[in-house]
Design brief:
It is a single chain. The protein is α/β, with parallel strands linked by helices and 417 residues long. Among the domains are: 38-173, Leucine Dehydrogenase, chain A, domain 1 (Rossmann fold, 3-Layer(aba) Sandwich), CATH 3.40.50.10860; 192-342, Rossmann fold (3-Layer(aba) Sandwich). The chain is built from 15 helices and 12 strands. Strands 9-8-7-6-10-11-12 form a 7-stranded mixed β-sheet, with helices on both faces. The longest helix is centred in the C-terminal third of the chain and has 26 residues, at 365-390. The structure holds nicotinamide-adenine-dinucleotide (NAD). Residues 3, 148-151, 193, 220-226, 244-246, 280, 294-296, 316-318, 343, 346 line the site of nicotinamide-adenine-dinucleotide.
Length: 417
């Protein structure tokens, strides 16, 4: 799936970053062989009876990239362009992300190649339930714990939890995270990824010596991540000057609440009264302090990176930057907070949700926020210190920590038999 015309393979990008981390850590070829191979891949056919009686077939996937440090963990994406290659890449990123945050998880990803906007609510429910039952043998609170991603939300998680529980014969809330609160979801999960993006922006601004009050930010993608990041950043005193969705971007709105209201009423941010329309590429090139790509992969490429004028790029999306785009931003001295750090707030609070479900004891919103801040701050400080001491980029430092932890766990567990 790409947003630019120059399609780059997300798996090739992820593997090249892994190769670099292995080389920088001076790990062995055995480590490379082990870490560059996904542990388990399941491809399923998902039949759907449409409301008009037609039966259609969709491809579904679940990739468990690693289970070395604990059960695998990762989102479920409903998007027409997903394929196995991208799902493996995203599952690999989840592995390093969980290790970087020091969560007791491996990494996974899954999804169905469908455009959810073409489904009625009842069709979406049937598709979600059938996908869940197809991957049921390999998921579970001790095995692999799905969560929402692009095109899915807490409603899908409720159906997944119910389908799994009906088959188990009792309620199993810990099988998915990102559930509604009444089903064992966690306070603060909905906004967690955006909150983590905002914490990352706050720390990057400190490093660059920029006052958050009045600093400007442009956000590409105004979904679960982009919207909540916008809310948190506005609360921190930044000025959100542009947002976008798949239909294009806008500038000139008064507040995040105003543009969100327009989105809820019209299904897009485009066309809000008093705003000016821009393209998604123009948004990337605005003269802002901070740029947050929070849509899909490959937004910042060799062809789009050149015009970026932001001093800080905080990756809300997974894999929004290609190696070519990354090289240009590094040459320009832009501080890039990489995806596996910047958007890890979601999986951190998913971890809290899983812990709460296991204990049947639920935390206050303040406890969630405090714990999110402390886990993310520990990871940010580690990455920042490693980047300075080893003279590498934040992306390289983050990958070295994540990959290094998984490699160490492999070594300590040993090879069976
Ligand atoms: P979402 O479906 O809620 O929102 C996606 C947004 O991107 C929407 O505004 C959509 O219109 C926009 N978009 C889609 N295609 C686009 C295009 N071609 N150009 C511009 N905008 C486009 O998804 P989300 O959960 O907000 O996820 C966004 C990104 O963040 C993804 O890369 C996802 O993997 C990543 N992520 C999500 C979470 C989470 O907790 N939801 C956690 C970590 C990372």
């Amino acid at each position: 799936m790409t947003m630019a015309s120059s399609k780059e393979s997300p798996l090739a990008t992820a593997l090249s970053q892994l190769r670099r981390a292995i080389d920088q850590l001076k790990l062995s070829e055995n480590d490379w062989n082990t870490l560059s191979t996904p542990r388990r891949i399941l491809e399923v056919a998902v039949p759907l009876r449409r409301d008009d009686g037609r039966v259609e077939m969709y491809k579904g996937y679940r990739v468990q990239y690693s289970t070395t440090r604990g059960p695998s963990k990762g989102g479920v994406r409903f998007h027409q362009d997903i394929d196995l290659d991208e799902t493996v890449a995203l599952a690999m990123l989840m592995t390093w992300k969980c290790a970087l945050a020091n969560l007791p998880y491996g990494g996974a990803k899954g999804g169905v190649a469908v455009n959810p906007k073409t489904l009625s609510m009842t069709e979406n429910e049937r598709l979600t339930r059938r996908y869940t039952s197809e991957i049921l043998p390999i998921i579970g609170p001790e095995r692999d714990i799905p969560a929402p991603d692009v095109g899915t939300d807490e409603r899908n998680m409720a159906w997944m939890m119910d389908t799994y529980s009906v088959n188990a014969g009792f309620s199993v809330p810990g099988v998915v995270t990102g559930k509604p609160i009444v089903l064992g979801g966690s306070l603060g999960r909905t906004s967690a990824t955006g909150d983590g993006v905002a914490i990352s922006v706050r720390e990057a601004l400190k490093i660059k010596g920029i006052n958050p009050h009045g600093a400007t930010v442009a956000i590409q993608g105004f979904g679960k991540v982009g919207y909540w990041a916008a809310v948190a950043l506005e609360n921190m005193g930044l000025k959100v000057v542009a947002v976008s969705d798949v239909n294009g971007g806008v500038t000139g709105f008064k507040s995040v609440a105003d543009i969100h209201k327009h989105l809820l009423e019209n299904g897009t941010v485009v066309g809000a009264p008093g705003t000016e329309k821009i393209t998604n590429t123009e948004l990337l090139h605005l003269p802002v302090d901070v740029l947050v790509p929070a849509a899909l992969a490959d937004a910042i490429t060799e062809s789009t990176a050149n015009g970026i004028r932001a001093k800080i790029v905080v990756e809300g999306a997974n894999a929004p930057t290609t190696p070519g785009g990354d090289a240009i931003m590094n040459e320009e001295g832009i501080l890039v907070v990489p995806d596996i750090l910047a958007n890890s707030g979601g999986v951190i609070v998913s971890y809290f949700e899983w812990v709460q479900d296991k204990q049947n004891y639920f935390w206050s919103a303040d406890e969630v926020k405090e714990n999110l801040n402390s886990i993310l701050m520990r990871a940010i400080n580690e990455v920042s210190e490693n980047a300075s001491s080893k003279r590498v980029t934040w992306r390289e430092a983050a990958n070295m920590i994540g990959v290094g932890r998984v490699a160490e766990a492999h070594r300590l567990r040993g090879l069976y038999p």
